[in-house]
Amino acid sequence: MPGVAGQAGLCYAKGKAPYGRYVVKSTTTFRSWAEETVNDVAAMVVATPATGKRLTDAVAAQKIAFGRPAGERVTAFGYPGTTPQRGEELLHCTGTSQRAPEGEQRVPCDLGGGASGGPWLAGLDSATGEGAVVSVNSHGEGDGGPPMYGPTTGKTARAVYDAAVRG
């Protein structure tokens, strides 16, 4: 089963992409995100380059855990546009997720603007970089400060994932 590509800190850092660059061939999201800013979930299908080395072959993949409730210890990752990183460094924060209104959850985190889409990994093994994706960074409070909010990966997230897999 396909997963979310990436091992923390290995895919991109300060303008370097040691495992190559991959072209996104399609994206999938729900209309409700564009029209009502609810269900902030999307999936991208990445093309296999002429070299034949798939993204998941280059950097592995994370499992996706659908339907997990808030209350787990998670590590949120992102490339915030804040100074001095300016989107060039992968940062993270760790905390226990809490249920939030409108099908979201929150975690104490101040990654700031630009970190959107970064994964929340539960059960992160710091030795292997493996965990299970239970949400993604969506928005912060007000100006992007703590806490960080993310969607619950329930039926909507599963439908987006399934649509992307079907192509």
Could you explain the architecture of this structure?
The protein has 167 residues and is mostly beta strands. The protein has helices at 31-36, 55-59, 155-166; strands at 4-5, 24-29, 42-46, 61-64, 73-78, 91-96, 98-100, 104-107, 119-125, 130-136, 139-141, 145-151. The strands form 3 sheets. A 6-stranded mixed sheet has the order 1-4-10-9-5-6. The chain has a 4-stranded antiparallel sheet with strand order 7-8-12-11, with no helix packed on it. It has a two-stranded antiparallel ribbon with strand order 2-3. It starts with a strand and ends with a helix.
Question: What descriptors fit this protein?
Answer:
6-stranded mixed sheet; disordered N terminus; 3 helices; globular; 167 residues; 4-stranded antiparallel sheet; mainly beta
Q: Beta-sheet strand percentage? A: 35-45%
What is the percent of helical residues?
10-25%
Low-confidence stretches: 1-10
Structural class: mainly beta
Major sheet? 6 strands, mixed
Overall pLDDT confidence: 82
Number of strands: 12
Overall 3D geometry?
Answer: globular
The gyration radius over C-alpha positions equals 15 Å
Question: What is the H/E string?
Answer: EEHEHEEEEEEEEEH
Number of helices in the DSSP assignment: 3
Distance between the termini: 14 Å
Query: What's the multimeric state?
Result: single chain
- Name the strands of the widest sheet in spatial order: 1-4-10-9-5-6
